[in-house]
Amino acid sequence: MLKIHLCPSPDLYELYHRSGAAVIVVDIFRASTTIVTALSNGAKGILPVTTTEEARIIGTKNNYLIAAERNVRKCDFALLGNDPSEYRPEVIQKKRIVFTTTNGTKSIRIALENGAKEVLVGAFINVSATIDYLQKKQYKEVIVLAAGWKGQMCMEDSLYAGALVSILLKNNRGDACNDGASMAKDLWNTFCSDETQRLDYLKKCEHYKRLEENRLANAVPYCLKMDTKEGVYGVTGTLKGPWITKIQ
């Protein structure tokens, strides 16, 4: 049986770390959804970095596509921002991308730097494929690391853990292992299991309003769709850094 722990903020990750557990980093609005989309559309790999300066220098030096976002807006020096719709096959196919975002890429680096056994990138759009991979690898424990917003919890990221637990329970394959995951499961089942209901519920969250104020909320319905992608994506290899690639 797969046990799910929810870590609601990257600032708390050290309290939740378990040496044998896989970590799924989740930033639904929008970094993890963008990463899954880019790799599904043929990007060769994505290098997550913490700072905009790293992205600019590494991208320029190595002729990578530069993707950078801060406070939901694309950085001026970058070709790409943090919206899934930007990552069309004709733009990113067979390209390497260096990527920095306000919350998601920082969370990936925190998981890696604290010794996570394996780091996956999770989104609603590939949740079932990710569950199948975890069970194929025979993991017993999984930590959902919710990227949140600048250290604060975000509803949409924590609810990913609820979806994970709900799907596992439905198939008698797993359960929640801490209060956060259990609460997220109850919220998911009550308010979010239906796509229209999910969108209406998450329009109340702070990050939706942040995107709406910046005229970027058009990405939200796509980010909340379930299982539109079949691949699994995680950190593999260290070619000048930890690259995120398709692993299944």
From TrEMBL:
Gene3D superfamilies listed in its UniProt record: ComB-like
Catalytic activity: (2R)-O-phospho-3-sulfolactate + H2O = (2R)-3-sulfolactate + phosphate
UniProt keyword terms in alphabetical order: Hydrolase, Magnesium
Glycosyltransferase in keyword set: no
Protein name, entry field: Probable 2-phosphosulfolactate phosphatase
Pfam families noted in UniProt: 2-ph_phosp
Family: Belongs to the ComB family.
Cofactor: Mg(2+)
EC number: 3.1.3.71
Top EC class for this record: hydrolase
Gene Ontology terms for molecular function: 2-phosphosulfolactate phosphatase activity; magnesium ion binding; sulfopyruvate decarboxylase activity
InterPro entries (alphabetical): ComB-like (IPR005238), ComB-like_sf (IPR036702)
Biological classification of the source: Bacteria, Pseudomonadati, Bacteroidota, Bacteroidia, Bacteroidales
